[in-house]
From TrEMBL:
This is Phenylacetaldehyde dehydrogenase. It comes from Mycolicibacterium madagascariense. The active site is at 255. The keyword Membrane does not apply. Gene3D superfamilies: Aldehyde Dehydrogenase, Chain A, domain 1, Aldehyde Dehydrogenase, Chain A, domain 2. It comes from the Bacteria.
Amino acid sequence: MSNAIDVEDTVDAPHSGMIPVFNPSTEEQIAEVPDSDQAAVDAAVARARDTFESGAWRKLPAARRAEVLFRAADIIRARSDELAELESRNNGMTAMGAQQIIKVANEMLIYYAGWVGKIHGESAPLVSDGLLGHYETFHTYTQLEPVGVVGLIIPWNGPFFVAMLKVAPALAAGCSVVLKPAEETPLTALKLEEIFREAGVPDGVVNVLTGYGETTGAALTAHPDVDKIAFTGSTEVGRLIVKAAAGNLKRLTLELGGKSPLIMFDDANLDKAIMGAGMGLLAGSGQNCSCTSRIYVQRGIYDQVVDGLVAFAQMLPMGGNDDPNSVLGPLISEKQRTRVAGIVADGVAGGAQVVTGGQPMDRRGYFYEATIITDTTPDMRLIREEIFGPVGCIIPFDDEDEAIAAANDTEYGLAGAIWTENLSRAHRVVNELRGGQIWVNSALAADPSMPICGHKQSGWGGERGKKGLEAYFNVKSVYIGL
Ligand code: NAI
Ligand code: MG
């Protein structure tokens, strides 16, 4: 094992075996982490439960809790180079991408640290018809209470950021957490446990458990002493989690897949639109839940946009995590590359044309070429399934209604993009698109204050913003007879 990273100092949970961890840019094993078994899950949940019931964290004064979270943000800032290096080695993302991930994760933490103590209940003046036929007067109020022990299950794309998207609001609300990172990318999540401890979060409030989804993840999801699961990942596993959560009716936040459309009208600023469509498709090599992989282009500009996107895809340098010029990194694993190649092959067998790309790269690492495809039909896997690779399809349309109908012809509803200089058209199409996050003349913009709530089969509930914090509270209404 070369460049081994010692995780033993951060992992002391009981476990039954070890999971090898690889660098997707080189295919080298860089670490191994425990494969946590049922006993490890039970122990982590028990630690979280003890701290929750004792109030070691949730009953601290708000100012103290905020101070601790801001201190964690300072530690992350001070260690950002080291964290970015680890993230890029483990996930394969470019050095630049990893710096950005650590930065936006920290902005998320700072955003939620700022909410501590600023979200609370309401009071309503209440006089009601009493049971005995005379008016009763009450003092009423609602109280927001942390939901309890929360299981957080995250995927391999943007691991440190997606972990923070859940840990930060959970801690801000006063919950205790058990975080299970993806088996492919556990390394920065393990650092998170260490960072929060150093910042002053009491031991046992943040627990990180490494392990596979089908075992460790499933045990956490089914655990009778876990009050809520927040999950990001595939729609298929989202469905399994819904079933597993039925046992004790856990609260659920599900951020699932997407198959997001981009609609480009012939009045768009084409230079910007082509670059925006290219980035919306290729950022993270397409391993992004909001990837706009169905690109609908008005017929008059279709040829020009195909040429532009092909040139854009060919221009972006693809390379390993240690290559400073690289803009596009590898896919996470050979399994994922095989999946992407299979979806492309199915399309080609059905008559789709690969205009550029369409092959694994001839080098070490799980690289797959940036790929632009035309001549698809709406029933192809290329159009229906989340690909999670650098593969986009360009489809011509004639008028606005046709574009809207095609864009909405999907079981997903996570995101969408519109490129037009016509203000009325932009608003009309925003109103018609079914998705939790719509960009007009922009690609991939995101801010901690703006929630993303999957419509249709893209999820339940939302993350980010005030809504993302409220998801970690139970509401209690209190009536005091006067
Ligand atoms: P996945 O949904 O299987 O994995 C995500 C997380 O769920 C991981 O931590 C995994 O260990 C855990 N998990 C898996 N099975 C579980 C179970 N039965 N109970 C509890 N936790 C479980 O996603 P995977 O296999 O890594 O990727 C497959 C496809 O899913 C991708 O090609 C992509 O299309 C989609 N995906 C979508 C994501 C998104 O952000 N929307 C993120 C990751 C994957
Ligand atoms: Mg899976």
